[in-house]
Every structure is written in C-alpha cells, then in structure tokens.
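Changelog excerpt: complex records now keep ligands as SMILES alongside chain sequences, and the structure block spans every component. Example after the change:
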Amino acid sequence: MIAYNQAQKTVHSIEQQVSYAAEQLQRHGFDRYYNAMVGAYVSDVHKTLNYPTFANATNRAKNPLSSVEQAVMYTTLYGKSHFDRFKAALTQLMGANVRAATVKKTIHIIDYGCGQGIASLALLDYLKTYVNCDGFTLHFHLVEPSSTTLGLAEKMVKSMATHISAVTKVHLYHKNLADFLNDNPSELMVGDFTIHLFSNVLDIPAVQQLIPELSTHMTAIKGKQMVVGVGPQYSANYQGLMMLKQTLSSAIVKQDVANFCTESEIYSIKNNHWQHSTSYGVMLGLCFKNTALEEALEKVA
Ligand SMILES: C[S@@+](CC[C@H](N)C(=O)[O-])C[C@H]1O[C@@H](n2cnc3c(N)ncnc32)[C@H](O)[C@@H]1O
C-alpha cells in the first residue's frame, strides 16, 4: 500500500489518480486497482467528502453517482467486497474447472445498473482464471444512468479485457433501465449466449418495478441465457431475487436464492485502516434457452 501511495504522489488531479488505478487494473488486476482507488481516497477525496454527505447525496449509493469523488468513495467502501462476492457467485454457478478447449462463440454480457462495472470486471476475472477465450467475441452492454460511473466502467472494462484473449467490444447505454428496455437494442439479437448481470441493483424499487418487462426482454433474446443476481443480505435484495425467479418461472434454477459469504481485505474509512472483512451475500442463478424466435426465423427461411 505504501508503495502505491508513493507512486501516486507525483499525480495530482483526481482524474489522473483514477487513470493510474485503471493502469494498475490493466497491468496487475483488480486488487492493485482497488489499492490505487483507496490511495486516491486517502490522499485526496477524504478531505472534501465524508460518509454522511456521500450517503445522503446518493441515497446510500442506490441513486446514480454524480462525481468522480463519489465514485472513488464508492469503490473504497464497497468495491472489493462487491467484486469478491460477484466472483464467488460466478464460480459457484459456472464451476471452478479450467476449460482449455478453443470454442468459437459470440457472447453478450448485459450489466444492468453497472455503476463502475464491478460485475463485468468479476466476470472478466473469472474468464481469465478458468476459460480459454481464444475463440470468443465478447460484447459488454453497460446500462447506467450516471455518465460519471458509466465512463469509468467503460475505462475499467477495457483495461481488464486486455487480460484475456477474446475480441472485446463495449457498448454504452447512458440511460435508466426503463429506457433501455423500451429501446430494445437490436445488436443483442445476434449471438450464441447472453449473460445478464445484476450486481446490487435488484433492491432498487425502480428496478424491481420493471422485473416483468425485464423478463419479456430476456425471453426475446436468441439462444442460451444465464441470469446472475447478487447483493448483500438485505431483505430488499431477497425480494428482488425472488421476484426475478418467479417471473422467469420456466427457467432452470442453477442456483436458488442462497446465502453465502466471502472474505476480503478492505479499507475501512470509519477506522482509517485496512481490515479483514467477512461480507454476507445472497445470490441467484438461472439458465434457459430461447428457441421460439429461432423456430419462427427457420419457418420464414
Ligand atoms: C448500488 S449501485 C450498484 C452498481 C454496480 N452494479 C455494482 O455492483 O457496483 C446501484 C446502481 O444502480 C443504478 N441505478 C439506479 N437506478 C437505476 C435505474 N432505474 N435503472 C438503471 N440503473 C439504475 C445506479 O446509478 C447505480 O450505479
């Protein structure tokens, strides 16, 4: 940690410090990225932003963030435990075995309310650890109403994607979920597999209200679908995961709504030091294949 802070001493603006963090992500991976974001918090952000102000301005991070300072504080507070929880859920769902064979596949990843892209980063880390991505084309679809965090998510996903051999494209949707679902992007229709990521968003009332429309959207996309929902163990998260499961009632339940916990080294802004933390989460994993569209297209052909 001391070494990273020293390296940051020559860097001045908060934007430059975040760029330095992106560089760390690209060179070394998520842990060093997190350390660099904590470095930006410790050397800079804490002087102008305290937790009560952050929590009040952002409705405890449920509302779109409006500044890079808020984004640095969010990552310092939650980034490492959210990342570790999401990666643990992906490992539970997709398995901890190495797949060495080259497979040619076009995969869409939709990160709903992506914030700074933590769920997409965890997926990239999972792929790096377990999957030969030589034949993959990955399309990351990042949906987020905050332009600040959407820009950061784009930067971080592109940085992390350099760790794997897939061809990677990032598509940005600077909008809320309702508008994304209304627009129904056509680029999603050409692919073999779609992974739907919900990281800490299914507790948000505006997102919960749209679960029926989300389900219609997911069942309209061609091919195999996987839905991954993760959040901390709060009643609103259980509620969101259960609503999603009930709405997608014909999906195969790969992982029912289940409690789990992960261990992380995080920086505590309350105590001003690093500490070992146990984070309690809840996850859901669903799979299904949409064939009606394919059959209809075959009939037309
Ligand atoms: C707790 S943060 C989670 C961010 C990210 N998924 C993560 O795990 O770090 C909640 C996110 O949901 C976004 N959000 C809030 N309301 C939304 C809506 N109606 N549609 C889409 N995203 C929304 C916020 O902007 C914020 O980025």
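The longest strand covers residues 273-290. Residues 61-62, 64, 82, 113-115, 118-119, 143-146, 149, 176-177, 199-201, 204, 206-207 surround S-adenosylmethionine (CB under 6 Å).
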